Amino acid sequence: MFPKFHKLNSGHKIPSIGLGVYLTPVSIAKEISLDGLETGYRHIDSAQVYKNESEVCDAIAEWLKKDPSTNKREDIFYTTKIFDSDHGYELTKKAIEVSLERAKGIDYIDLILMHSPRSDYERRHGSWLALQEAVASGKVKNIGVSNYGIKHLKELLAYPDLKIKPAINQIEIHPWLTRTELAAFCQTEGIVVEAYSPLVRGQKFDDELLLSLAKKYSKTTAQILINWSLSKGYVTLPKTVTKSRLLPNLESDQFKLSPEDIKALDAKDEYFVTGWDPTVYPLDNEK
């Protein structure tokens, strides 16, 4: 019903639904990642600050070895992120090396994101230069950002030595936090919007409209929310540590919400942030 992939401005493809592993404990990160791959996920989203990069990469490597004739590395999209404390050219170069070492069993990283814009112009700029070099090395296929607002994206796009535009801006986005202007800016610039916390961390599962739509379509509340993300043209990253929820989340692309129901969900927008919002972080001249 929906495209299985989005084409990035780099020319690479990214699966429309990915498995998020934020707050997934190290003790189960490998198991749930492997379960996800066996279920049909081909996109897993990690980060250095999640402290489960090694486990996710080990799961991918194990899956690849299970059936080399059908389980191909080129079918997997693995993402990680460089945290704010490692902004700056030299620190980011070292951080990239650390992530590549953890990913040595899978040969390369499909996407590295800057986790947020929370530093300053010089360090953000230096980080982007290091990321561009990583792409040139061939060990990183795509680069992008996370939690960037319009002003941060404009700053990046104006770098005098910009060679590679961000492929992705990963942001919290769901019906209670629609970020219409930011999403439109990204799409105008050819930057794919990637929605994290599409399930609102379960905090709106008792919403009357959401429950009524779940009943109307004979779907779970999670499936309605994932489908809303897909209807907007976003890549979406539902997270679960429960094996039984993996397949239903992945199958959320097999129906379509009506335009009227999408509009009704859009109207829920109330700037409801479930975690943090670095998109409002000030630029140097605003501090």
TrEMBL record:
Keywords from the UniProt entry: Oxidoreductase
Active site: 50
CDD domains the record matches: AKR_AKR1-5-like
UniProt site positions, description: Lowers pKa of active site Tyr: 81
Molecular-function annotations in GO: 2-dehydropantolactone reductase (A-specific) activity
PROSITE patterns from the UniProt entry: ALDOKETO_REDUCTASE_2
Signal peptide: none
Gene Ontology process terms (BP): ketone metabolic process
Binding site for substrate: 115
SUPFAM superfamilies the record matches: NAD(P)-linked oxidoreductase
Keyword Oxidoreductase applies: yes
UniProt catalytic activity: (R)-pantolactone + NADP(+) = 2-dehydropantolactone + NADPH + H(+); isatin + NADPH + H(+) = 3-hydroxyindolin-2-one + NADP(+)
Pfam family, any one: Aldo_ket_red
Domain NADP-dependent oxidoreductase: 37-269
Top-level taxon of the source organism: Eukaryota
Designated name of the protein: 2-dehydropantolactone reductase
